[in-house]
Design a protein that fits this description.
Helix content is 10%, strand content 25%. By secondary structure, the chain is mainly beta. Strands 1, 7, 8, 9, 10, 11 and 14 form a 7-stranded antiparallel sheet that branches. Strands 26-27-28-31-30-29 form a 6-stranded antiparallel beta barrel. Strands 20-21-22-25-24-23 form a 6-stranded antiparallel barrel. A hairpin with a 5-residue loop joins strand 15 (239-241) and strand 16 (247-249). The longest helix is centred in the first third of the chain and has 12 residues, at 6-17.
Length: 597
């Protein structure tokens, strides 16, 4: 027998639990404002984003787990040997032992039946188990858990029990869409003085991976669960439609709780319910639980949940009565073992000045990722150093047949009176995007491999690589960014020194360039009055944006535009996040990102 209809279910629970806390189905519910196609208030949900069907596997929106890697915007399974080799030995439900928790999760990612069972080696006498009691069905009841550290099973505490935990429990019980409800009940007839407090993140596939602690059951209130079925779900017209097919109450979207189980109800939010108390709104449009704020772990891909945390207490120490199993701590430890990368951070930080067209002169160290591409007698284009032996520029700036004639200058401020810090390298290889269209400027991106100066190195002193964005959601329209270059001023006047200016990102740029602007490959930036703009000679140079932690990302490459310095013709840039995988294939992922490797 699966799920009972909701009304009958509620009667059963009320009768047997004595004091049920279900909300009655016949209670009058408040009218909600007009909804989007997904049945959610337009005030909180971005319908365009919803159409992209993001889930917890969308690395444009979330970080992949340590046993996954981001390919083409999706978190895919790593092979077990690609995990860090030191860690906690674990036992799988199949009876097989693994050297580390990460290896098991990678193996499970490929073969979902091999779930985590316990830490340590398999002994053949494994004891973890969960069950539902008091309703006579396999989908409804009070939850009991048996851990290896306990001789007998225990009820789960009401305190802290939520859909996050309930979804994992129902998944463990064989319900792929998780939980429908999280009732709790007072049971004076249960002779239990203790219960198990359960803490999960919602990404676990078994309750065995969650963290448990023994608590007193003073009020004898215990957690229950109703596992999900479509028959008992809210009607479609009053529900949020999850990507996985589950329906959750409309008001549950964008509240920081992963009700869907695949997180699709929290990934396209223009704001969050309970923001500042129970939920936190990431700049990428994701709602996360408020308890993740300043906990020492970056949960927003934009990093704003860990910004301005001075004086905040980082995550809590384990309770004295915690049980030894804690795979969340192990997951964090695995993340700390993954490769790190130094990019986008410079020692000298210039002051932000308003007022490249209309720009201000740069100083040495202001833009350590900026390079100049010289061909013939002058500087024809700019470029951006991204680490190792690699520079990225616009495809229209370079030709494969001329690669031996290019000189790449770093730390250059004036090309009339070069400063002493200037370094230059020759080019070993030019890679132009295979789908570059010289007529439309689609895919206007190219890579330059520098010749090595010594035996093993082609890096240039004073240079710092700009970070490359893997997600198009790291920065949003109106975010202030910086352009720099040696391009011409208004009136086609030549510029002999590096200039920079501050611009803001512009959305819906098709209004300025109808039929010529391709949103997937391009982005726009400028100022309201057109006083700052890229111009001829700036091509191939950087549009860089800083995140809340002052890390600089290469957001765009100067590509094209019309009428330099006019507000109705903003500059058009190659959208670098669209080419993250393409760049990674040529230069190696570990060189350009420390995330989602």
């Amino acid at each position: 027998m699966r799920l009972l209809p909701v009304a009958l279910l509620l009667l059963c629970l009320c009768a047997s639990f004595c004091t049920s806390h279900y909300r009655k189905e016949n209670e009058k519910k408040p009218e909600l404002p007009p909804a989007s196609d997904a049945g959610v208030s337009r005030d909180l949900v971005d319908a365009k984003c919803l159409a992209e069907r993001h889930t917890h596997h969308s690395c444009d929106k979330v970080f992949c787990q340590p046993w996954q890697r981001c390919i083409g915007g999706t978190c895919l399974c790593k092979l077990p040997y690609q995990c860090p080799k030191n860690g906690t030995r674990v036992c799988a439900s199949s009876g097989r032992s693994f050297l580390t928790y990460c290896q098991l999760k990678s193996f499970e990612c490929l073969q979902p039946d091999a779930k985590f069972l316990k830490s340590g080696e398999c002994t053949g006498h494994e004891k973890f188990d969960i069950s539902l009691q008091y309703e006579g069905t396999d989908s409804v009841g009070l939850l009991r858990v048996r851990l290896e550290a306990l001789e007998e099973s225990m009820y789960v505490c009401k305190d802290g029990w939520s859909m996050t935990q309930a979804n994992v429990a129902c998944l463990d019980l064989g319900y792929p869409l998780g939980a429908l409800d999280t009732p709790h009940a007072t049971r004076p007839d249960i002779e239990a003085t203790e219960c198990l407090h359960v803490s999960c993140r919602g990404t676990e596939t078994s309750l065995a991976e969650c963290t448990f602690a023994r608590r007193r059951a003073d009020a004898q209130e215990f957690a229950g669960v109703v596992c999900y079925s479509h028959a008992a779900a809210p009607p479609a017209e009053k529900a949020f439609q999850c990507v996985n097919g589950k329906r959750v109450p409309r008001g549950k979207a964008c509240d920081g709780v992963n009700d869907c189980g695949d997180q699709s109800d929290e990934l396209c939010c223009t704001g969050c319910q309970g923001a500042g108390s129970t939920s936190f709104h990431c700049r990428s449009g994701v709602c996360i639980p408020w308890r993740y704020r300043c906990d020492g772990e970056r949960d927003c891909i934009t990093g704003d949940d860990e910004a301005h945390c001075e004086g905040a207490e980082h995550h809590v120490a384990r309770e004295p009565n915690s049980l030894p199993l804690d795979m969340d701590t192990e997951r964090k430890r695995i993340k700390s073992l993954l490769p790190t990368l130094s990019c986008g951070v410079k020692q000298q930080v210039h002051s932000r000045r308003r007022r490249v067209v209309g720009g201000h002169p740069a100083h040495v160290g202001d833009f350590p990722w900026q390079v100049a591409i010289r061909y013939g007698e002058g500087i024809n284009c700019g470029g951006i150093y991204i680490g190792g032996c690699w520079v990225v520029t616009a495809a229209h700036c370079v030709r494969v047949s001329k690669m031996h004639q290019y000189q790449i200058f770093s730390s250059l401020i004036s090309w009339v009176k070069p400063n002493s810090e200037v370094q230059y390298r020759l080019v070993n290889k030019v890679i132009i995007h295979e789908n570059y269209n010289g007529s439309t400027y689609q895919n206007d991106i190219a890579l330059l491999e520098l010749k090595k100066a010594g035996i093993n190195s082609c890096e240039m002193p004073g240079s710092v690589p700009a970070c490359l964005p893997w997600s198009p959601y790291l920065f949003q329209p109106n975010h202030k960014c910086i352009i720099s270059g040696w391009g011409r001023e208004k009136g086609n006047l030549k510029v002999f020194s590096l200039k920079w200016g501050e611009v803001h990102l512009i959305g819906n740029c098709s209004q300025f360039y109808p039929g010529r602007y391709f949103e997937k490959e391009m982005l726009c930036a400028g100022t309201n009055d057109g006083s700052i703009d890229a111009c001829k000679g700036d091509s191939g140079g950087p549009l860089v944006c800083q995140d809340v932690n002052n890390v600089t990302y290469l957001w765009g490459i100067v590509s094209w535009g019309e009428s330099c310095g006019k507000p109705e013709f903003p500059g058009v840039y190659t959208k670098v996040s669209n080419y993250f995988d393409w760049i990674g294939r040529h230069v190696g992922r570990s060189l350009i990102s420390q995330y989602n490797l």
